[in-house]
Structure formats: structure tokens, C-alpha cells
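Quiz preparation item.
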């Protein structure tokens, strides 16, 4: 009579196949999480810039910046923080837009750059000049 040998446990190949499948699934999930974080940061930057770009021209008129007036610190302190750096310092430049990356990177205080002539607003954060 032939003797039947019972197979006990799993083979190394089966374990490797399961580990490979889990690694592929983990890689897919991880890329989705990273992509979602980047999308969330981009949305926050765009929202905050839109808010700043709507506030700045009114502030410049209200405090008569064109004729040497200054915006009080109590007002600038109430501005939203730069979502990249967490600062709300405002640096006013005397031209239409910053020299990319010149003004943006040399200011380096991490808040906002505002054009005196146009009221344009930019992030003061290296690598974010395209917003």
C-alpha cells in the first residue's frame, strides 16, 4: 500500500508570494497617501493665497500705503499664516512682482510678499514661486 505523506505548513515560495503581494499593496497605498497630502497642501496654499489676494488691495487703500501710510502690526498679525512656513510677516516690494527666485528667497522671513504697485501676493518660501 502506498503511503501518503501529509503536507504540513506552507512552502517558502508561498510565503514569498504573499510577502510580495503585501509589498505591492503597501506601495500602492503609500503613494496614494503621499499624493493626498500633496493635494491637501496645494489646496490650502491656493485657498490662503486667494484670501490674501482679496484682502491686500483693500488694506493698502484703507491705510493709504501709496502715500506713505503703513499697515499697523495689529492688522498684519491678524493675517493668515503662510501655510508652508507658518509665518504671517508681510514684506512689501516696490515693483510689479518679485524677481523669481530673487526677492522671494532673499527675504526669507517666511510670510508673504506683497507688490506695492499691483497688490499682488506671493508666498515667501523657496520652491513655491509658481503660485
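Solution:
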Amino acid at each position: 500500500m502506498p503511503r501518503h505523506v501529509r503536507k504540513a505548513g506552507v512552502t517558502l515560495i508561498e510565503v514569498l508570494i504573499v510577502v510580495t503581494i503585501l509589498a505591492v499593496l503597501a506601495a500602492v497605498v503609500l503613494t496614494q497617501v503621499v499624493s493626498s497630502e500633496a493635494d491637501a497642501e496645494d489646496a490650502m496654499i491656493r485657498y490662503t493665497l486667494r484670501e490674501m489676494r482679496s484682502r491686500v488691495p483693500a488694506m493698502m487703500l484703507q491705510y493709504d500705503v501709496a502715500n506713505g501710510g503703513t499697515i499697523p502690526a495689529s492688522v498684519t498679525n491678524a493675517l493668515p499664516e503662510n501655510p508652508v512656513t507658518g509665518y504671517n510677516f508681510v514684506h512689501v516690494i516696490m515693483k510689479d512682482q518679485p524677481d523669481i527666485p530673487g526677492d522671494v528667497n532673499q527675504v526669507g522671513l517666511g510670510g508673504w510678499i506683497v507688490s506695492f504697485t499691483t497688490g499682488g501676493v506671493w508666498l515667501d518660501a523657496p520652491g513655491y514661486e509658481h503660485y
